[in-house]
């Protein structure tokens, strides 16, 4: 067996299941889960229609192996979306590839980029990532033979990771930096000044930047979140050197079950990424490609989806802020709340008394540089409809008030 598998830690949801093992939730309340960040708004009909049309057409394409690079029409749809959304001009043939959702792409990127030392006695390469984080960052780093280095999100900086705190000795060993903007779970969006700092560090030390942008289309400010590619172009880095951006339809278009997204950026990295994926066996079904083209070409459903989240957050956030230290994030569909105590105990007791599931913040982070930045916080995914989220919020208010009584 691969000995690196022993380094993997249980996923947050497995830890949550263990936390609740001996708890019987109050049967007076129907279960409501704010724990899983899975989009639950309706899938747009135009995407379903495109998929059905692809299945029933002759030929459907299902009788042939799809190309790992995807159909030219799909890559052109990616390029057109990047132009509309970010005013970018990238080459569909050399600077983008379809992926089966950002999760598998993040894993594959680390396997492509990380170069293990020839001498086993030499220090392992580093993959730098935010803390708290999406756990695939850690797993991808470990299974590539690297070590993760965690950079804490700073409440004083709108929960943005403090990249400036990373020592030069760490950057010297870094081969991949994973950034998440808008962030999970904090919703923080990186400004241009921080992108400039990271690009300069990448130039100095030679590491690749993987920009996880799967929450880019759910935002609450007037200014849409800045893409890493957009930042690079604004700073004159039109070759997108050592930069790969990853995005997905899961959140944007409410199709997590379709497993569809794309990567774009540095043509040299894309070439190596394609080589890896050719062996990895991750070509996208022609039916999914057809549905993806329809999704990327339409913005009306994205605007409607964003409006649903804005309405929901505008009602839920003020209600919860009566009893918790919580504020509207820049973007994403999570609330990152300070519970002024032990986060695991809070989640366990809330589930027991009010049948509401939230995710302890400490489960999403690691203890690094002497602290766990998720301690004392919970993540709430407002993915259900507004009425269900409001009911959950009202129960949380009652729960917190009862605890303080």
TrEMBL record:
- Which cofactors does the annotated protein need, by name? pyridoxal 5'-phosphate
> Ranges for the Aminotransferase class I/classII large domain?
32-396
Q: Which GO terms describe its molecular function?
A: transaminase activity
Tell me if S-adenosyl-L-methionine is a UniProt keyword of this record.
Answer: no
- Give the matching Pfam families: Aminotran_1_2
Q: What Gene3D superfamilies does the entry give? A: Aspartate Aminotransferase, domain 1, Type I PLP-dependent aspartate aminotransferase-like (Major domain)
Q: Which UniProt keywords apply?
A: Aminotransferase, Transferase
Mind telling me which CDD domains this protein's record contains? Answer: AAT_like
Q: Which InterPro entries match?
A: Aminotransferase_I/II_large, DapC_beta/gammaproteobac, LL-DAP_aminotransferase, PyrdxlP-dep_Trfase, PyrdxlP-dep_Trfase_major, PyrdxlP-dep_Trfase_small
* Protein name per Swiss-Prot or TrEMBL: LL-diaminopimelate aminotransferase
Organism equals Rhodoferax lithotrophicus
């Amino acid at each position: 067996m691969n000995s690196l598998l022993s380094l993997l830690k249980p996923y947050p949801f497995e830890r949550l299941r263990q936390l609740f093992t001996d708890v019987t939730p109050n049967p007076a309340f129907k279960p409501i889960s704010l724990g899983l960040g899975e989009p639950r708004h309706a899938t747009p009909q135009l995407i379903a229609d495109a998929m059905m049309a692809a299945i029933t057409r002759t030929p459907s394409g299902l009788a042939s192996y799809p190309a790992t690079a995807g159909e030219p029409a799909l890559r052109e749809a990616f390029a057109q979306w990047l132009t509309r959304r970010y005013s970018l001009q990238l080459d569909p043939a050399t600077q983008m590839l379809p992926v089966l959702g950002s999760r598998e792409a993040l894993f594959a990127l680390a396997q492509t980029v990380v170069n293990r030392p020839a001498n086993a006695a030499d220090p392992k390469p580093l993959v730098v990532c935010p803390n708290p984080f999406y756990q695939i960052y850690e797993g991808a780093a470990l299974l590539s033979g690297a070590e993760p280095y965690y950079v804490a999100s700073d409440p004083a900086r709108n929960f943005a990771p403090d990249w400036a705190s990373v020592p030069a000795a760490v950057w010297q060993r870094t081969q991949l930096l994973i950034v998440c903007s808008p962030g999970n779970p904090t919703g923080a969006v990186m400004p241009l000044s921080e992108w400039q700092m990271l690009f300069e560090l990448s130039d100095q030390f030679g590491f690749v930047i993987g920009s996880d942008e799967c929450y880019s289309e759910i935002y609450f400010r007037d200014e849409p979140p800045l893409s890493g590619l957009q930042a690079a172009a604004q700073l004159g880095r039109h070759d997108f050197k050592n930069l790969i951006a990853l995005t997905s339809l899961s959140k944007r278009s409410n199709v997590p079950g379709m497993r569809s997204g794309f990567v774009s950026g540095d043509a040299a990295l894309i070439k190596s990424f394609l080589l890896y994926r050719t062996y990895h066996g991750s070509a996208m079904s022609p039916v999914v490609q057809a549905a993806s083209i329809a999704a990327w070409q339409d913005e009306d459903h994205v605007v409607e989806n964003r409006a649903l989240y804005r309405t929901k957050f505008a009602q839920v956030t003020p209600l919860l802020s009566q009893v918790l230290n919580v504020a509207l994030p820049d973007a994403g569909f999570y609330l990152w709340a300070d519970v002024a105590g032990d986060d695991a105990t809070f989640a366990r007791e809330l589930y027991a008394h009010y049948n509401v599931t939230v995710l302890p913040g400490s489960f999403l982070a690691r203890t690094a540089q002497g602290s766990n930045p998720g301690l004392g916080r919970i993540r709430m995914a407002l993915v259900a409809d507004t009425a269900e989220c409001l009911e959950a919020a009202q129960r949380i208010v009652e729960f917190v008030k009862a605890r303080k009584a």
